[in-house]
Amino acid sequence: MTDLRRRYVDQIRRNWASLPPELAAAFAGVPREAFVTGGFQRRDGSWARPGSPGFLDAVYTDDVLITKVDGRVPISSSSQPSLMAIMLAALEVRSGDRVLEIGAGTGYNAALLAALGATVTSVDVQADVADKARAALTTAGIDGVRVVAGDGYAGMPGERFDRAIVTVGVAGISPQWLVQTGPGPVVAPVEHAGTHPVLAVRGPAEGPVTATAICASGFMSASGPLTATHARSHPHPAPSGAVGAVTEVAPRRWAEPLDSLVYRDLWYAAGVWSDRATHAALPGRDQSALMLLDEAGTGGAAILPDGCVLAGGVHASAYAEQAVEILDRWEAADRPPMQAWRIGLQLTGDPDAPIWAPATWTLR
Predict the structure, then answer these.
(1) Could you tell me the CATH number of the domain that includes residue 254?
(2) What share of the chain is helix, strand, coil (3-state, %, to 5)?
(3) What is the phi-psi region of residue 13: left when phi exceeds 0, alpha when psi lies from -120 to 50, beta otherwise?
(4) What is this enzyme's EC (predicted)?
């Protein structure tokens, strides 16, 4: 293992201490640079290309690499490696398993699955993305992966897999994945309160279908029926400039703000208890926050990591009251982590292309 890859694995392990040895070996062995030969977008908006100063150092960091944009909107990437590791561990893949992957991305995730001994079929709706992933896998010398340009919702009709993993944000689970997969699980980032917490989903296509939350995450969203709105949909995130002035209506609760993981636990609970919970950019603040967004999309109440509540808009007082109730309820429940929720899914969305979407939650 080179020093660069050793540092890379150490970074992943620092961000996820439970990294199993077989996953550490996969990350150390698969050349990530082979999957970003066209370069990637740096956080400052510039484009890093092979051979440019610091290129390999940037490739071998625990960070997402944006590989395709539409204007200013990212539409394909290599996900954050520590998040990939958590999802792959949740998949419980074993050598010899057949894995269906929805969203090929760069092909790097499929390569890691192959390194774990799986045979992989990866489906991507973007033909050019599928072509590049296929070429990268060949260049990297990865066997056992088939990349198909097609409709992710349909999966691979007529074929059978042991498990499925989804690498794009979805509103729910396609019944086709459940038909094609057994014993499972299907690991997927499913929309909730403006984010995409990763769920491990199990059940037959006809139901009942249940899930548990694995971790917080944010993914690029899919298109078509996989992003259908439903009865428990939350508002889309409010971008910069959408929310007007907000003022403090309840003081901070905690001397030390919640760390990012615990704040996401609160965020998840807020999404369970309010269908207006989402992600919002707030005026005058660098960090976006959990917000109960009003129907106009310009006001409501934000809950900050220190428990302070900010509110604005015509119905500020009503939303502020709801925010305080959520904080009280979360503390009364002893601050449950998102993994403590048992999730029931129901068939909803487009009648011609339904999805299994989260509908009920109970604390285990």
Answers:
(1) 3.30.310
(2) 30, 30, 40
(3) alpha
(4) 2.1.1.77
127-139 helix and 108-115 helix, angle to the nearest 10 degrees:
40
Residue whose C-alpha is closest to residue 176's, from 34, 353, 360, 2: 353
Rounded average pLDDT over 165-179:
97
Chain segment 309-336, per-residue pLDDT in tens:
999 999 999 999 999 999 999 999 999 9
Phi-psi region of 320 (alpha: psi -120 to 50; beta: other; left: phi over 0): alpha
For the sheet with 119-124, list strands across it.
Answer: 145-149, 119-124, 98-102, 163-166, 186-189, 198-202, 209-215, 341-350, 353-363
Contact residues for 54 (Cβ-Cβ < 8 A; gap 6+): 48
What is the CA angle 168-171-173, rounded to 5? 80
Domain count, the chain: 2
> Which residues constitute the domain of residue 297?
247-332
Q: Which tens digit of pLDDT belongs to each residue from 112-126?
A: 999 999 999 999 999
| Tokens 């029931």 belong to residue | 344
Distance CA 132, CA 119 (A): 19
76 close to 103: Cβ distance less than 8 angstroms: no
Nearest residue to 251 via CA among 148, 145, 323, 337: 323
Point out the residues that are catalytic: 79
Dig out the tokens for 70 from the structure: 């539409």
Is residue 247 a contact partner of residue 196, using CB atoms and an 8 Å limit?
no
Contact of 74 with 61, CB cutoff 8 Å: no
